[in-house]
Specification:
The complex is a heterodimer of chains A (about 1050) and B (about 475).
Chain A: H1 2-29, E1 32-40, E2 51-54, E3 60-62, E4 68-74, E5 79-83, E6 90-93, E7 99-103, E8 114-117, E9 120-123, E10 131-135, H2 136-140, H3 147-150, E11 158-162, E12 171-175, E13 188-191, E14 194-196, E15 221-227, H4 230-233, E16 244-249, E17 255-270, H5 279-296, H6 328-332, E18 336-348, E19 352-364, E20 371-384, E21 389-403, H7 415-421, H8 438-443, H9 456-462, E22 464-481, E23 486-505, E24 521-544, E25 548-571, E26 586-610, E27 614-625, E28 634-645, H10 650-653, E29 658-672, E30 684-691, E31 696-703, E32 714-727, E33 732-751, E34 760-783, E35 786-804, E36 811-814, E37 817-820, E38 827-831, E39 833-836, H11 840-845, E40 858-860, E41 874-878, E42 884-894, E43 897-907, E44 910-913, E45 965-967, E46 970-981, E47 994-1008, E48 1029-1030, E49 1037-1047
Parallel strand pairs in A: 1-7, 13-16, 44-48
Antiparallel strand pairs in A: 1-4, 2-3, 2-5, 5-6, 8-9, 10-15, 11-12, 13-14, 15-16, 17-18, 17-49, 18-19, 19-20, 20-21, 21-22, 22-23, 23-24, 24-25, 25-26, 26-27, 27-28, 28-29, 29-32, 30-31, 32-33, 33-34, 34-35, 35-42, 36-37, 37-38, 38-41, 39-40, 42-43, 43-46, 44-45, 46-47, 47-49
Helix pairs in contact in A: 7-9
Chain B: H1 2-22, H2 40-52, H3 60-69, E1 74-75, H4 87-93, H5 102-124, H6 133-158, H7 171-174, H8 182-199, H9 214-227, H10 231-241, H11 254-259, E2 266-270, H12 283-286, H13 294-299, E3 313-314, H14 316-321, H15 328-332, E4 333-338, E5 343-348, E6 365-369, H16 370-385, H17 390-402, H18 414-428, H19 435-441, H20 445-451, H21 467-472
Antiparallel strand pairs in B: 1-3, 2-6, 4-5
Helix pairs in contact in B: 2-5, 2-6, 5-6, 6-8, 8-9, 9-10, 9-16, 10-16, 16-17, 16-18
The chains are: A mainly beta (about 1050), B mainly alpha (about 475).
Chain lengths: ~1050, ~475
């Protein structure tokens, strides 16, 4: 053994002499010179620890605490390279100068930035999957309720759609399209390591879903990392199929304690009103409808009005002095105030770091009597217990109160629908101050046969609809350094989410079509959700030769969720004074429910970087879930990725313009386990029957469904090819991805023969494909005195259904949308219009139509060519899926001013304008302004696609058809902010170290052809089979605000 | 290092072994069929569940459309005939039936839901320990009676249908069913009703009034025999029902049949109460015209239902067909001026409970009553003897006298007596969901309806099997001809 070592030693020594002998020889022939100098940063502060190296040699020093260096180098006009993390490398050629002042400029490159991936972090240049990072700074400029709203237009492949304009309403986030039909398409949100339930959680009594993510204050966010492809998401196994949004909140940094105070105040108004008829136009329209109805029923045109029975026009229509000419939209909309206050403390030393914040947010909605108030705390605390042990605490308690109104839907129960459809003849109040009662007027037929629309102002002011939400998200972790390379982390976290709703229906409001006074009733409910998570993680990090890095993790986690719900319904309240169920005369219904799920997982990842050029990643996760049937309890989700930093290869190194070029290829399998908690159980439904000469209700039971032991998760296989390119020293950075994913095993209610006793069974049978292309570019256009950066992204996604579990040609209809194999999800499937019948001859020549049309009625096409027009003549008339989404952000700063402009948009999607009653031309409801172009006679056909006004029933005017297909493309200026940072604030007497004042506009301009309130009508957060349907929602608002950021 | 690994290994091993239980969760707020059949009380709940199928819209409310609207008794309100949302009703009113008719699909599904519930009870009851053997037999009898009710509807509407007499637990098994022949189905029905009539009691205590009785099983069995052209087998059953131990009797007035639930004439009724929403009778609300105020106009200010559908309005021809002074007519049909139509119409006024909420009122719906037994007796005698006998005339007269009509002159032959019985049944049982079945049983559907201007074709005598059922059966289930 010793001999071998001796031989090796000799060999190396020989090698040494052979190698450096020539160098030494050359050294001796040249003189050496001592070079010294000072290195400073962009603020003229000395930079400590800058590496000063002689190019192509091992000679190097570092700057000292004053930023000074001294190095001895051969005097042959070589180059000194200065490098420092976060700054651009600087090269200085050695000349006869003895003292060098080197200015280091912050690096524009993001390659060394750290990105959060599942369960660990990675340098951006080592990432092999498709990950987008959005920093907290990009979010902080926006005045929004929750961080998910702020993500609009910021990341390629991530589509964010606000569901409604209500304060605190849900937001639908889709990463790379919809892939599931029944199991939900929301991504998994991981907040400080805790996977939480995001998306919208509504109850059947709350038309506006409350958004649990609003409990997180956007100002507390450090960064958001979005995992898009399977290589990145497979580590989340059966929950990663829809992508993962990882939110990291700010933790403390060591150093002098810092206090920041941010506040803004603003006013918001509706983005635009809908055009409806005024009183004069409404009168003319109603008279026309009645007259046409009379004539078509065979009436004589010369019969006086009073003798026309149900087609008579009541007196008020002839007396303009009696018309109130109310603009009902003005009655229910207002200018609302928004305020936000945020106070944060960060600081620490080498053993303890903290970040604590308190915030208060108020949003007064633009619809009267709606508002949101939120109070939130955040405590992030990290402590170094000893050399090996670290402790961390993340705690987020928050409480919010939401005053809501039922605003979504048609006029029967929704405020906005009522305002659009109620006649302008009456106002909200009677002369004596009481509420006007349009439902009673309708029954008394004083205004003719009007539709059953209640007084929306009375509804808003008298009915109560409140939601309280209190949430505590807490996480405690311990990290133990076993060796320098091996760490063990264990954490325990709890998410406690409690909602309480209170609803009261007053005596002064209508019920269905029944006018007030009505008997007051109310509903109260309370839900409590506790989710706890235990994670145990081993992390191994080893760097070999500074160019080969091996990272490996192995983990085990358990998670359980327990949801409880109680509700009580009361009716027969004696009056409106006490509005709680305690006053109810009868407590007539109630329920107590409890539902649980649990998850057990093993996961691991290995990541190897070779020579800083070749990256290989492999991940694997095994999930066992309580939701899966006994035949398929455990799932395995593997993935693999390779990446190649082509720019580091010799053939590319010297191309000056290309500073980075990385190829990424990945393939993986992830799952969607968002299936019902107990789908495999053959449950029993409680029902009742009646027996007895004095009838009493007896309990009865019926089977709910057959046992389903094979029900299991949905599987998504994705292949992703991407490239990250940096040009001109990373002044231009481009990220682009092509992907194709197949989701199969989609849970669908498959038709089964009725002889089983049931009509459907939930089975994993469907298959959907999504493929697309994403392109994001980030440029530093100007970097000197004026700094101008642009970030732009565009994404294309194409969606196709491959299987629906039945014979090909199988389809699923929801409303007027049909999903069929071979086409995208949720296409609109309706009648096809063909203009208006002008004359009876035209009708006779046309194929017979099922409503026995008359001149002035809508003409439909005989789509199936069977010689008749009826409900079988439907065709695909529109696609709610957009052709592409895009976002552009421009940030400009000059001296003390900063300017930010965020534009986002969508192109090519169709919206089903489901306000059919708004153009039903029946004479009984106020109509959209478009009917001014209606058909009046063959000589006066109007715009040619709007039928005549007539108050008879079967005109098919309102039947779903391509007349209601509208273009939903829009370009929106989502945010425009101008800020001014007060210079030299350090010198003032108040100890403010930084102060910035800004004005900001959110959603201030929208360019779109859509006639409804807003083209962002909510991606139908619930059902991907019927997206793009505008059936009436709380309108969107634009907000102007002024804000202040102070740092002490 | 080594000791840490040991701890880790232990931890993992413990975790793995307790893992299985950790992810075995069953719901706590609802029962499942594994643990719901343990005691006689559970069997009682399950039997009540089979009865509850009678409450579903697809059974009760839609029955009027499938047996009255299709016939000459009812039509859709004129102004609604061309409207949207009534295309399925239009198919029934004008004999334009398609295999996608929603009411027919729902009916098929509801009937099989009841059959499956009965099959499950008959299967599971064997594993429940009973101390009272009579009680167990009663439950079995009730399940078989109801299963027969459901199959009788199926075979009369559709012809031969898949015959399932045991519980299906695996969805895959459901796909292999073919349509049995009509006779096979009738055999099953007859077997069920025969067994039921042995197991069911004659009467129940007051608290259980409304359950299937021995008399109900026999009356239904008689009707089954008559429908299946076995009048001889029906006769003895019908005669038994006129004697002890059965105490059925005609009520003194027609109104009295419906004013009180489960009265002396009633044999089997769908039980309703208006106290709890969802357990009430939908008919009073359902039969109204499409006028906003019809409910309040007819039932008074305490009417709390909603606007009627206007899809099952009695025809003028029905009104005019009654003989003069027939007390049944004013009780069944009420004249009402409809603003929508601007003309007088007739509304079904047989179910008079005032709705306390939408489609929710107190009255029961009568499925079998003693008058039916009498008229069936007359029919059975006529069929088996091919001529009416005195007993048959007596039975017919008893029904007519109660209606305030004179007795008939006894000079009918077989054919004319049949027609007289058919008419009498039409007036006696108008809107009790019998007309279509009567027309078919008497083989007069085509003749009578064609004469009244309906475009009925011979293949319309059987409803189309729902398209969905044909398509997913992969050839096992064939469609009825003509559709």
């Amino acid at each position: 053994m010793k001999k071998i070592l001796y031989l090796i030693g000799m060999f190396i020594t020989c090698l040494f002499f052979l190698c450096i002998a020539p160098t030494i020889a050359s050294c001796q022939s040249k003189a050496s010179v001592t070079v010294s100098g000072k290195v400073i940063d962009e603020k003229s502060q000395p930079l400590i620890g800058v590496s000063v190296k002689l190019e192509n040699s091992d000679i190097g020093v570092a700057t000292n605490s004053e930023g000074r260096f001294t190095i001895s180098v051969p005097n042959d006009k070589r180059v000194l390279v200065f490098s420092y993390l976060g700054y651009e490398n600087k090269e200085v050629r050695i000349t006869n100068v003895s003292e060098y002042n080197v200015n280091m400029i912050p690096a524009v490159s993001t390659l060394n930035e750290v990105v959060v991936i599942g369960y660990s972090t990675q340098r951006k240049k080592d990432v092999s999957g498709s990950v987008v990072s959005v920093s907290g700074d990009q979010l902080k400029n926006q005045s929004v309720t929750g961080f998910d709203q702020a993500l609009k237009g910021q990341a390629a492949g991530v589509q964010v759609v606000q569901n409604t304009g209500a304060p605190g309403s849900g937001v639908t986030v889709r990463i790379r399209g919809n892939s599931s039909i029944t199991a939900g398409n929301d991504p998994l949100y991981v907040i400080d390591g805790f996977p939480v339930t995001g998306g919208s959680r509504g109850t059947e009594f709350l038309p506006v879903s409350s958004n649990p993510l609003n409990a997180i204050n956007p100002a507390d966010i450090e960064s958001i990392d979005i995992l898009k492809d399977a290589s990145a998401t497979a580590i989340y196994g059966s929950r990663g199929a829809n992508g993962v949004v990882i939110v990291t909140t700010k933790s403390g940094k060591s150093g002098k304690g810092k206090v920041t105070f941010d506040t803004y105040s603003g006013i918001q108004k509706v983005t635009k009103k809908v055009d409806v008829l005024n009183a004069a136009e409404f009168a003319e329209y109603h008279k026309e409808a009645q007259n046409n109805g009379w004539l078509q029923s065979g009436g004589n045109p010369s019969t006086p009005n009073a003798m026309r029975g149900q087609y008579a026009v009541t007196d008020i229509y002839f007396d303009p002095s009696k018309w109130a000419n109310t603009d009902w939209q003005d009655q229910i909309l207002r200018t609302g105030m928004v305020q936000n206050y945020n106070l944060a403390f960060t600081g620490g030393n080498e053993n303890i770091r903290y970040a604590i914040s308190a915030s208060h947010y108020r949003n007064e909605g633009i619809v009267i009597e709606t508002a949101l108030k939120r109070y939130a705390f955040k405590i992030n605390f990290d402590a170094k217990l000893n050399n090996r042990l670290n402790l961390g605490v993340r705690l987020t308690p928050s409480y919010s109160i939401n005053n809501e109104i039922n605003t979504d839907g048609q006029f029967a129960n929704a405020l906005v629908g009522m305002a659009l459809r109620l006649t302008p003849f009456v106002g909200p109040y009677l002369p004596d101050g009481n509420y006007q009662n349009p439902l009673a007027l309708r029954n008394a037929q004083n205004l003719g046969n009007l539709g059953a629309v209640d007084n929306p102002v009375a509804r808003a002011k008298e009915d109560q609809f409140d939601l309280d939400q209190s949430r505590v998200l807490g996480n405690l972790f311990l990290e133990y350094k076993i060796t320098d390379d091996l760490k063990f982390k264990t954490s325990i976290g709890v998410d406690n989410n409690n909602n309480r709703t209170h609803r009261f229906l007053s005596s002064k409001t209508g019920r269905g079509g029944s006018p007030p006074p009505n008997i007051p009733s109310g509903i109260a409910s309370s839900s409590q959700e506790i989710e706890w998570l235990n994670e145990n993680l081993l992390t191994y990090n080893k760097t070999f030769n500074s160019k080969n890095i091996l990272t490996a993790i192995a983990g085990f986690s358990t998670q359980k969720n327990d949801y409880r719900f109680i509700q009580v319904n009361g009716s027969n309240y004696p009056n409106d004074n006490v509005q709680y169920v305690s006053a109810a005369g009868i407590v007539n219904a109630g329920t107590e429910n409890r539902s649980q799920w649990s998850l057990v997982s093993y996961f691991g990842r290995v990541n190897y970087v070779l020579s800083d050029k070749y990256i290989v990643t492999a991940t694997m996760r095994r999930d066992g879930s309580s939701r899966f049937g006994s035949e398929n309890k455990y799932g395995l989700f593997p993935s693999g990725a390779i990446a190649w930093r082509m720019s580091e290869e010799n053939f590319m190194r010297n191309i000056g313009s290309i500073s980075n070029f990385k190829w990424r290829l990945s393939y993986g399998i992830s799952g969607n386990n968002n299936i019902p908690n107990y789908a495999f159980v053959p449950n029993i439904v409680n029902t009742g029957y009646v027996f007895g000469t004095t009838p009493i209700v007896v309990n009865a039971i019926l089977s709910g469904r057959l046992a389903n032991p094979s029900v299991t998760w949905e599987t998504k296989k994705t292949i992703n090819l991407g490239a990250d390119i940096g040009l001109f020293n990373n002044r231009i950075e481009i990220t682009t991805d092509f992907y194709k994913s197949n989701t199969d095993g989609l849970l669908l209610n498959v038709n089964i023969p009725a002889v089983s006793g049931f009509g459907t069974s939930l089975q994993n049978v469907g298959e959907v494909e999504n493929k697309g292309f994403e392109f994001a570019i980030s440029t530093k256009n100007l970097v000197n005195k004026i700094k101008w950066n642009t970030n732009a992204n565009i994404s294309f996604n194409r969606n196709k259904v491959l299987a629906l579990g039945g014979a090909a040609g199988d389809f699923i209809d929801v409303g007027s949308s049909r999903t069929v194999v071979g086409k995208p999800l949720g296409l609109f499937y309706m009648r096809v219009t063909d203009g208006i019948f002008n004359t009876q001859e035209e009708i006779n020549k046309h194929v017979p139509q099922d409503n026995a049309p008359k001149p002035g009625d809508r003409k439909f096409k005989d789509v199936n060519g069977d010689g008749a027009v009826n409900n079988n003549d439907l065709d695909f008339v529109g696609d709610p899926n957009p052709d592409f989404n895009y976002g552009i952000t421009n940030t400009i700063s000059y001296k003390s001013f900063d300017f930010n402009l965020l534009i986002n948009g969508v192109y090519g999607n169709d919206i089903f304008y489901n306000y059919a009653v708004g153009t039903n031309l029946n004479g009984n409801l106020n109509q959209d302004g478009v009917i001014r172009g209606r058909w009046r006679s063959p000589e006066n056909p109007g715009t040619g696609n709007i039928p005549k006004a007539i108050s008879v029933a079967n005109t098919l005017t309102a039947v779903p058809s391509d007349f209601f297909m509208l273009d939903g493309s829009y370009l929106r200026i989502a945010n425009i902010t101008l800020g001014y940072t007060f210079p030299n604030i350090n010198n003032s007497k108040i100890k403010i170290s930084n102060a910035r004042l800004y004005v900001s506009g959110q959603n201030i301009f929208t360019f779109s052809k859509y006639p409804g309130y807003d083209p962002e009508i909510g991606a139908g957060g619930g059902n991907p089979l019927s997206n793009g349907v505008d059936a009436g929602i709380y309108p969107m608002s634009k907000l102007f605000s002024v804000g202040l950021n102070l740092t002490f | 290092m080594r000791s840490y690994l040991k701890y880790l290994a232990c931890f993992l091993v413990i975790s793995v072994s307790s893992c299985k239980k950790f992810i075995d969760l069953l719901p706590v707020d609802q029962a499942n069929s594994e643990n719901s059949f343990q005691s006689p009380a559970d069997a009682n709940l399950a039997v009540a569940g089979i009865y509850d199928v009678l409450h579903s819209n697809a059974y009760a409310q839609d029955m009027a459309l499938l047996t009255e609207l299709i016939s000459d008794n009812a039509r859709i309100q004129p102004s609604r005939q061309g409207g949207s949302g009534v295309s399925d009703n239009r198919e029934l009113d004008f004999f334009q039936l398609t295999d996608q008719n929603g009411f027919i699909q729902n009916r098929w599904s509801a009937l099989y839901k009841g059959i499956a519930a009965a099959n499950q009870l008959l299967n599971k009851i064997e594993q429940i320990p009973f101390t009272d053997a009579l009680l167990k037999n009663q439950y079995i009898g009730e399940a078989r009676f109801l299963r027969a009710v459901f199959y009788f509807d199926l075979v009369r509407f559709f012809g031969g249908v898949p015959l399932s007499l045991t519980q299906i637990t695996n969805t895959a098994d459901a796909f292999s069913f073919k349509r049995s022949t009509e006779q096979e189905v009738y055999q099953a029905i007859i077997s069920d009703l025969s067994e039921a009539s042995k197991a069911l009691p004659v009467n129940y205590p007051a608290s259980n009034s409304g359950r299937a009785t021995q008399g109900a099983a026999k009356a239904l069995l008689a009707k089954v025999f008559l429908t299946n052209n076995n009048a001889d087998l029906a006769l003895p059953l019908l005669r038994e029902l006129t004697k002890a131990p059965y105490t059925y009797n005609m009520m003194p007035t027609y109104a009295a049949c419906f004013d009180t639930d489960n009265n002396a004439e009633s044999i089997f009724e769908i039980q309703y109460t208006s106290i709890v929403p969802g357990e009430g009778n939908p008919y009073p609300n359902f039969f109204l015209t499409n006028d906003n105020t019809a409910g309040r106009d007819i039932y008074g200010a305490s009417y709390l239902g909603v606007t009627g559908a206007g899809v099952c309005i009695p025809t003028f021809e029905l009104f005019n067909s009654y003989e003069a002074n027939d007390t049944r007519r004013p009780y069944t049909l009420l004249k009402y001026f409809s603003k929508q139509e601007a003309v007088d119409l007739y509304i079904v006024y047989k179910y008079r409970g005032i709705p306390t909420s939408a489609f929710n009122s107190e009255d029961n719906i009568v499925l079998l009553r003693y008058a039916d037994v009498l008229l069936m007796l007359a029919e059975a005698i006529n069929e088996s003897g091919k001529a009416p006998a005195a007993e048959a005339y007596d039975a017919l007269d008893a029904v007519r006298k109660r209606a305030g009509l004179p007795v008939v002159t006894r000079n009918f032959n077989y054919e004319s007596f049949r027609l007289a019985l058919l008419d009498e049944r039409r007036w006696e049982f108008a809107f009790e969901n019998q007309r279509w079945f009567d027309l078919k049983r008497f083989n007069k559907a085509i003749d009578i309806l064609t004469a009244k201007g309906y475009s009925i074709k011979p293949f319309h005598l059987l409803y189309p099997v729902p398209r969905k059922e044909v398509e997913i059966s992969q050839g096992n289930i064939t469609q009825n001809p003509g559709y």
